[in-house]
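Closing statement on the manganese (II) ion sub-project.
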Amino acid sequence: MSSHVLPPPPTVAIPVAGGGTFPVRRVFCVGRNYAAHAREMGGDPNREPPFFFTKPADALLTGGADMPYPPATADLHHEMELVVALGRGGAAIAEDAALDHVWGYAAGLDMTRRDIQAQAKKDGRPWDMAKGFDHSAPIGLLHPAAVIGHPARGRIALSVNGTQRQSGDLADQIWRVPEVVAFLSRLVTLAPGDLIFTGTPEGVAAAVRGDLLEGEIEGVGTVRTRLV
Ligand code: MN
């Protein structure tokens, strides 16, 4: 008999294209990873080491569900991103072995309370409440690498109510997926089920209640949510 004093929380899982679900362990995110976006955020687009933050796994929003507009913000931004799903873990993973650890890819949104983030940056405080709030990570179907391969280039774009807001190319990432996996694995021991949001191209902007967000990554897949 279990000695848990509360029922354990349900396992967070992402639907996989073709069937089944991918159980999620942790959600890591890369900060600035496209030069044009680094510039629009007032940063230096040079090749400084990547930096990471996290979201709780239960911030994921799947199945094209509506996203409740979060509290405590008047400046909710969309960040369209390629998401890497790890099927194998490890520490100090070599760059040339990193893709062997990747199970698949999805299109995702790193939704951001930009006003809270700006205040946190100003005060030198953590980003958690800007990034890791409820429903802050809408994600589309997960596509197995066994089917789609390991996309290193291709258009990544987001439209809001049918009008394009963000557009870039995976080839413009400052740090490519194998480098991101290798870097992160030198900070924490990665595990099967971990996700990595790999950063957003330029064009981040505010979204409001009623907006329909539709993202697409060429060769990968789509993500869709409506803010309510
Ligand atoms: Mn981001």
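The two ends are 42 Å apart (CA to CA). With this model delivered, the sub-project is considered complete and its resources will be redirected to Aim 3.
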